[in-house]
Each structure stands twice: as structure tokens, then as C-alpha cells.
Amino acid sequence: MNRTGALILFFFFCISSISFAYEGSEVKNGGSIEGMVTYAGSNIPGDEMVSISSDVKHCGKSIPAEKYLITQDRRIKNVVVFITNIKAGKAIPRGEIVVDNAKCAFVPHVSVGFVGNNFTTKNADPMFHNVHTYIGGKTVYNIGLPNQGSSVSKPLKKTGIMEVTCDAHPWMHAYTYVFDHPYAVLSNEKGEFMLKDIPPGG
Questions:
Q1: Which terminal Cβ of the chain has fewer Cβ within 10 Å, N or C?
Q2: How do beta strands 118-123 and 96-102 pair?
Q3: How many structural domains are present in the chain?
Q4: Which helix H or strand E contains 59, and what residues bound it?
Q5: CA distances from 72 to 9, 17, 63, 164 (A)
């Protein structure tokens, strides 16, 4: 399944376009940016269904493509919102991004991760999954998850859009956008987002 056209999921809100090495520090008198992402087109596109070609007994015959996540009031979920050209600010949050293989689909479909944290992939299905990730067309990790309940964690080292695929189930796709600073979020089900603790002049 070609997801090159999944532009809506990665409609980026950017401030400037130059990147610098980031330094975490205490933020005093910080500000915030909040907003809502809406669809401006005349006709709201609907998601197509992707046919499942194997493991149908467990996964069913089709799943939503999750190409467009737009509500009837034109609000868009899973938009990656971030700031560029920010040299310093709050510390990068510690934690992990968890992407599960569930019913022959990746959950969540879009996520935001940070350099220095882990990318953890799990297998909730009773069949083999092979999680193959790419940034810029080059393999980052190729992870086999042979058993239900298995999981593997790998460090996030490189920034960019990391495409997540399954070599065993070619219709499976997800995306993790990896940043080297903490000012990046996803819009929620209502299209809302907020970036907090932005330093003055940031």
C-alpha cells in the first residue's frame, strides 16, 4: 500500500526553517502556542479500506487505511505540529514511543518521538510480525517479533520521519516523527494542539 499520499497526516506547522543544536535548560516566563487544525477543502475525503491478504482469520478481510482522519466538522487528527529554529528550552521528556502490532495494523498510526528515548514495538497478534523502519529510505531497524506478547526496544538516534512497515504484512504502515527538541506534538481527535513552556524569543 503506497502511503506517499498520506499528506494530511503530516501537514506540518513550522516556525522558521533552520535547525540548530538544542540545549535543555530551565524555562522561566515561558509562553505557549495552541490552536486547532481544520480541513479547508470543499469535500471531506473519506478513508479507504485496505484489503488484508493473509491471516484473515485473526485480522479480518480489511482495515481502514487511516489516510485521512478528518471529522465531520473538518477537524484533523494526527497532525504533527512543531517548532524549528529553537536553540534552547525545556528538557526533552523522557519516556518511550510504543507501537503495537494489533489485528494486522500498527497502533498508533502516527506518533512523535525524541532522540535519546526508546522506540518500543510489541506484538499483540498470534502470528509473526517483522517491524522494518526507515528514515529517508534507509533502514533504521529491522525487528522480528515471532511470538504474541513479544516486544523489542531500540534507541531513537536520528531525526526525521521514520516510516514503520511490516515485511510480513505489506499493507501495514505507521509513522513516527523523531525530534531532537521537545517542542513537537500531535493534534488530538478534535484537531487541537498545544506547545507549552516556550522560552521568550524562542
A1: N
A2: parallel
A3: 1
A4: helix 56-59
A5: 17, 32, 20, 28
Is residue 1 a part of any domain in this protein?
Answer: no
**Which residues lie below 8 Å from residue 158, measured CB to CB, with a gap of 6+?**
115, 135, 140, 178
Cβ atoms of residues 105 and 63 within 8 Å: yes
Tens digits of residue pLDDT in 117-142? 999 999 999 999 999 999 999 999 99
Residue type, 70: I
Residue 2 domain flag: no
What is the domain range of residue 68? 7-198
Give a yes or no: residue 162 inside a domain: yes
pLDDT tens across 67-114, in order?
889 999 999 999 999 998 888 899 999 999 999 999 999 999 999 999
Residues 6+ apart with CB under 8 A from 137: none
